[in-house]
Design a protein that fits this description.
Helix Hairpins, 5 strands, 9% strand, Heat Shock Protein 90, alpha+beta, single chain, five-stranded mixed β-sheet
C-alpha cells in the first residue's frame, strides 16, 4: 500500500471517529434534556409536597389546640359525672342522665379528635419521607447532569488533539478539571438560587393565595398575612443581591481587595456570630484581577467550611503582600478534623466541593496550599498565590 493510500485511510478513520463522536454527543445531549425534564418535574413535585407539608403542620397545630381543649372539657365532664353519681340524694335522675351523656359525648369527641391528630401526624411523616426522597432524587440527577455536561464539554472540544498530547503533558486532564470546576460552580449557583430566592418566591405565591382566602373572612388577619408576604419578598430580594455579589463583587473593582474582604467578613460575622479578627497588610504592588477574585473565593469557601463543620467561636484572617506573592492565612478555634482522611475522601469520593474548589483554584494559578488541623485543635489554612500572570510564567517561588 502506497503512502498516499495510507494517508487516505487515516483521513477516513478520523472522519469516521468524528462522525461517531458527533452521534454520541447528540445522544448524550438528548439524554441530558430528558433528565432535565425529569428534574423539573421532580422539583414541581417537591414544591407541591412542601406546600402540603406546610398545610398539614398548620392543621396539626390547630388540632392539638382542639385536643387540649376537649381534654379539659372531658375531664370536667368526668368530674361532674363522678360528683353527681356520688350524690344520688342531691341530684335528680335527669341531672345524672345529662351528666352521663355529657361525659360520654366528650369522651367520643376527645377520642375522635385524638385519632384525627394521629392520622395527621402519620401523614406528616409520610410527606417528610417523600420530600426527603425527592431531594435525594434531585441531588442524584444533578450529579448525573454534571457528569454529562463535563463529558459533552470535553467531547465537543478537539478530542483527538487532546489525546495525541495526553502522554506528553497534562493539558487534557487540566481541561477536564476546568470543566468540572465550571460545572460545579454552575451547580452551586443553581442550588443557591433554588434553596434561597426561588424558595422564598414559592412561599410568597402560597402566601398570596392564603391572603386572598383569609382577607375575605377577616381583614385584620389578611393584613397580617400581607405583612408576612412582604417580608418573604424582601428576603428573596436580599438573597438575589447576595448571589449577584458572590458571583462578582463590584467592590473588588471599585474599592479594592482589602475593603471587599472587610465587607465579606462583616457579613459572615453577622450571619454566623463567629468573632473574626482581620490583619490585612497594605498592598505593595498591583494584584491582578483574577488573583483578587481567587483570594475572595478562597475566603468564601474556607468560611463556608468553618460555618458548616468547625463549631468555631473565633477566627483570624491574615493577608500579607510581597513583591511577587501574597500569603493568606486563615485560622479558627473549632473542633478541627483529620486532614489526611478528609483530603483522601475529597479526591476519591468527590466529597466537599468547597475544598475541591479551593485546591483547583490554587493549582490553576500555580500557587501553594497547606491545611493544618487535628481533632480539638482548630484549623489553619495557608495559601500562597502569585500577584500576577508574569510571576506564573516565570514559575519562580519566593519573593
Amino acid at each position: 500500500m502506497s503512502g498516499a493510500d495510507k494517508m487516505n485511510n487515516v483521513d477516513l478513520d478520523v472522519n469516521l471517529i468524528n462522525k461517531i463522536i458527533k452521534k454520541v454527543i447528540e445522544e448524550i445531549s438528548s439524554s441530558r434534556g430528558q433528565i432535565l425534564d425529569i428534574v423539573d418535574n421532580i422539583r414541581k413535585e417537591q414544591e407541591d409536597l412542601k406546600f402540603q407539608l406546610i398545610q398539614i403542620k398548620s392543621e396539626i397545630l390547630k388540632v392539638i389546640d382542639e385536643v387540649d381543649d376537649l381534654q379539659k372539657q372531658e375531664r370536667i365532664a368526668r368530674k361532674r359525672l363522678a360528683e353527681v353519681s356520688a350524690n344520688f340524694n342531691k341530684y335528680t335522675e335527669k341531672d345524672i342522665k345529662e351528666a352521663y351523656e355529657k361525659a360520654s359525648d366528650m369522651r367520643v369527641k376527645y377520642s375522635t379528635k385524638t385519632n384525627e391528630e394521629k392520622v395527621l401526624r402519620e401523614k406528616r411523616s409520610q410527606l417528610e419521607i417523600a420530600l426527603k426522597k425527592t431531594m435525594e432524587n434531585i441531588d442524584g440527577a444533578e450529579k448525573v447532569i454534571n457528569q454529562i455536561s463535563i463529558a459533552m464539554g470535553y467531547l465537543e472540544g478537539d478530542i483527538l488533539s487532546a489525546l495525541e498530547g495526553a502522554d506528553k503533558n497534562s493539558e487534557m486532564f487540566l481541561g477536564i478539571k476546568i470543566l468540572e470546576a465550571q460545572e460545579n460552580e454552575r451547580k452551586r449557583i443553581a442550588r443557591d438560587i433554588h434553596d434561597g430566592p426561588a424558595q422564598h418566591m414559592a412561599n410568597a405565591v402560597m402566601k398570596a393565595d392564603i391572603c386572598t382566602m383569609v382577607i375575605k373572612k377577616d381583614v385584620e388577619e389578611g393584613l397580617k398575612e400581607l405583612a408576612d408576604l412582604k417580608e418573604s419578598v424582601k428576603i428573596a430580594l436580599k438573597e438575589v443581591r447576595n448571589i449577584i455579589f458572590d458571583l462578582r463583587p463590584m467592590s473588588l473593582d471599585d474599592l479594592g481587595l482589602n475593603h471587599t474582604i472587610q465587607q465579606t467578613v462583616k457579613s459572615i460575622t453577622q450571619e454566623s456570630n463567629i468573632d473574626i479578627e482581620l490583619k490585612l497588610k497594605p498592598i505593595k504592588t498591583e494584584i491582578e484581577s483574577i488573583i483578587q477574585v481567587a483570594v475572595y473565593r478562597i475566603i468564601q469557601e474556607v468560611f463556608n467550611n468553618i460555618k458548616k463543620h468547625s463549631k468555631a467561636k473565633h477566627a483570624e484572617v491574615k493577608l500579607d503582600f510581597g513583591t511577587k506573592y501574597l500569603m493568606l492565612v486563615i485560622t479558627d478555634d473549632g473542633i478541627g478534623f483529620n486532614v489526611e482522611e478528609t483530603l483522601k475522601n475529597v479526591r476519591t469520593k468527590g466529597a466537599s466541593y468547597g475544598l475541591i474548589g479551593i485546591f483547583d483554584r490554587v493549582s490553576q494559578l500555580q500557587g501553594e496550599i497547606q491545611i493544618k488541623s487535628a481533632a480539638g485543635e482548630g484549623t489553619t489554612y495557608i495559601v500562597k498565590l502569585p500577584n500576577n500572570r508574569e510571576v506564573i510564567k516565570d514559575g519562580k517561588r519566593g519573593d
